Amino acid sequence: MIIKVIKGSDLTAAIRYNTLKVSNEQATVLSTHRLPVDDLTNVSLLEKLMTKISTPLKGFSSKVKNFVFHGVISPEEKDLSDDTLKRLSDDYMKEMGYEKQPYFVVKHQDTEHTHVHIVSVDIDNKGKKCIDDSFSYKKTSEVRKSLEHKYSLSSPQKSKQEAAKQKVENAINFVDKTSFLKNDVEGSDYKKNIQRVLRKVRKDYEFTDFSELNRVLYPFGIKSEVNSEHEGISFFSIDRAGKQNGKAIAGSRFLYSFKTWADLFLQNFKVKESRKNQPNVSKKIVRMLTDQLFKKYAGKITYGDYIEQIRKRGIEAQPILNENGLLLGFNFVDHGKGCTYKASEVDKHLSKELKDRLIEGGVGESPEIRETNRLQKALEELLQIRIKETYGYESSAVKFLQYEKDLYISYCKKFYYANEYNTNFAIEKFIADKTAKLELIKEREEQQFQLEADRFLKMASVVDETKLAELLRSSHFNFEDGKLSDSRRERYSVETAIHFPSFDNYQRTSEDRALTKREIEFYTLVAEKGISQVKFDSFNLDDKLFRFLKPELRVQAQAKMMQDRFVSIAKTETASDVVYKSIMNGMLFGMQGNEVVIFSPTSEAKLVVTDQNIRNYFLSNRDAILNMNRDFLTKSGKASLLYQSIQKFNKVLESDFKKEERLIYICDWMAQHNPQIATDIRRMVEQEQYDKIISHLIKFADADLRFRNYELYKAHAEQKQSASNKRKGKGI
Q1: CA distance 318 to 201
Q2: Closest to 232 (Cα-Cα) out of 258, 214, 213, 210
Q3: Are 476 and 488 spatial neighbours (Cβ–Cβ below 8 Å)?
Q4: pLDDT the model gives residue 141
Q5: For the chain, what is the radius of gyration of the CA atoms?
Q6: Of 263, 264, 587, 625, which shows the fewest CB atoms inside 10 Å?
Q7: Helix, strand, coil percentages for the chain (3-state, nearest 5)
Q8: Are 300 and 357 spatial neighbours (Cβ–Cβ below 8 Å)?
């Protein structure tokens, strides 16, 4: 996590910087502190109150120069919830001494990395300094470490090399995520996607004219077209050949007019001029990488392989071809450093070298690479034969001796002539080298078997006896005559007191699902330390993670999962919000004797509520909560359709992963039961009114998803839409 503090004297500028982002839908107000604002979307009221409360009263003035506090918190983690960001911000301000000061917190989403801004002041209502900001840098550093520990966040203490590598990865990921060349973008998101890209390139790239801008835009599958006569500009999507395949949208629709771009070109030109005598690291990297590739591949290399290798360093190489497909030159775009240049600007000889050495073809089609890939499998099979001849079994430890492509190429090059390879020599040399390591393979094999067998037997100790056969099928172990053996290492076995069903390789089928890494870690932890030591980050009582557990352990695990989620919700919420959010997560409230308990229709697990505030809230609102339960349960106590639908929606709404696509899928499921409600919610999804989905279901659906007073609701919705259309008409 990175925390920056900017001190200044212009309070209005600090407020407006954030509220403008909110007005442009690039940010969201998360919370306010000591500001009487009920509606966080009322930006103008927030501005007025913050300015009024943070300005000295009449008759007083401030002699403090830099009294404005503007903090920026940037966690490394991308999936933090709004609640976590709010708590993180409040804890930071409290530790920094601003607990009694007015401030507001804004989440910015205008960059690839979500972060929060906090605006406050160091003075009281008489203009006197009331916050000690001496040694603020040191104090912020200490607070940051404390918060990282409390919220299990990553530390920014990375080397410059790691930070630069991460920046390149983030830039390439953004290209891959937004490029029209790699993604089919729906019509409703077409403009939004172009806007995201334009916002990114304006912020992170340097270009001094429209031709350089188009170089930067090409990897994103976007092109600009200029009408110099009328000083107009438009943007549209293109295919790999650079031809338009999407609707052109005027730059003014993105608030980026011709003049805006011209001003940016001039600004970038001045910056480049100021650095023209400094060495260009990006160009040096292209020259170095090109030399390395030409040295590594003594023969020809294809366009595809050259472009792929250069891109690994975050640099996009763009070949320029004529009508006949002949290479004329290359342009480069460095996504990590945000610059673009021609091959001739790297080195006056580079264009000619690329024309002479590059040939047509895609990734993996260069002669040496193709030959290497072709023989790799054969070489490993020969090594397996040698191991079997020596030890009588096939090795699974060959993977610990990774096949070296570069080593193979070096063997070939000893007999390199006219682009031909002495493959027989390469095979003999490869096998000879590996055969010398057979003892190491055997030692690794024994150690690996013992470790895996010990871990597997620990797992089996917490598995339902009726599931032991299924556990074996999911592993690579066999069992016969009281001994556990490895299906890949027939000579290794270990005796065990656990009685598995007899099982051998021939009983496995392609339908058997192998144990996942997550399952192996979970069962091992349960066996070694118990359910109480497991920390559940997700909430799904039907998690396949529990598929082998003994019944009593399964119930304990589900109860622990309930407890972890309930504790997580209860950390900062009021009692009413805790109850509501718990129910939305699938945990219902009820009575068991005199105890208030949490339960779920999908599990036998129960959790006694010990928090007195929540107990009191439940008892005060018992009838209303139990009435809600009736809609969530069938007469036999199973999960109703309403309960199922709310859980499906809530799970997706808590995540940003393919949100719209997954919500539409749930609407399709719902349409089988009630097409009217499915249509309504689908419309909400398309209009991104996600916050209305669950409240709509609770308000208008019964347990079997029927509408309550649907006609009345429909009339109200139409009336509201009509009023909205009239307001828009007046504003045109």
Answers
A1: 17
A2: 258
A3: yes
A4: 82
A5: 32
A6: 263
A7: 55, 15, 30
A8: yes
Q: What is the pLDDT of residues 71-109, one digit of tens each?
A: 999 988 877 888 889 999 999 999 898 999 999 999 998
Tell me the C-alpha distance between 268 and 208, whole Å: 6
What's the average model confidence in pLDDT over 699-714?
76
Res. 117 pLDDT band, cuts 50 70 90: very high
pLDDT higher than threshold 80 for residue 400: no
For 246, which DSSP code? S
Q: Which residues pair with 358 in a beta bridge?
A: 301
Residue 218 neighbours by CB under 8 Å, 6+ apart: 238, 242, 316, 318, 333
Contact status, residue 254 vs residue 198, Cβ threshold 8 Å: yes
Which of these, 352, 219, 362, lies nearest to 290 by C-alpha position?
352
Other Cβ atoms closer than 10 A to 204: 17
Neighbours of 725 (CB within 10 A): 9
Q: Which residue has the higher pLDDT, 714 or 447?
A: 447
The SS3 call for residue 55 is coil
Tokens of 192: 């939004």
The length of the chain in residues reads 732
pLDDT tens digits for 300-323? 788 888 888 888 888 999 888 877
Cβ neighbours, 10 Å, residue 365? 16
Nearest to 113 by CA among 141, 154, 144, 150: 154
Buried b (16+ CB within 10 A) or exposed e, 458-495: ebbebbbeeebebbbbbbbbbbeeeebbbebbeebbee
Residue type, 394: E
CB 70 within 8 A of CB 7: yes
Whether the per-residue pLDDT at 552 is higher than 60: the answer is yes
Residue 6 has pLDDT above 90, yes or no: no
Name the helix (H) or strand (E) containing 320. Answer: strand 315-321
Residue with tokens 């771009």: 261
- Residue type at 338? G
Q: What are phi and psi of 162, to 5 degrees?
A: -65, -40
Q: Are 92 and 147 in contact (CB under 8 A)?
A: yes
How many whole angstroms separate alpha carbon 165 and alpha carbon 725?
A: 50
Q: How many CA atoms lie within 13 A of 1 on its CB side?
A: 25
In DSSP notation, 497-535 reads SS-PPPB-GGG--TTPPPPPHHHHHHHHHHHHH-GGG--
The whole-angstrom separation of Cα 626 and Cα 366 is: 69
- Backbone φ and ψ for 445, nearest 5 degrees, come out as -60, -45
What is the residue-wise DSSP string for 429-498? Answer: HHHHHHHTTHHHHHHHHHHHHHHHHHHHHHHHTTB-GGGHHHHHHHSSEEEETTEEEETTEEEEEEE-SS
DSSP state letters, 189-217: HHHHHHHHHHHHHHHH---SSHHHHHHHH
End-to-end CA distance of the chain: 45
Contact 224, 216 (CB under 8 A): no
pLDDT at 554 over 90: yes
Q: What angle do CA 608, 610, 612 make, to 5 degrees?
A: 135
Q: What is the pLDDT of residues 601-638, one digit of tens each?
A: 989 999 999 889 899 999 999 998 888 888 899 888 89
Residue 123 near residue 101 (C-beta atoms within 8 A): no
Asked whether residue 395 carries a pLDDT value surpassing 70, the answer given is no
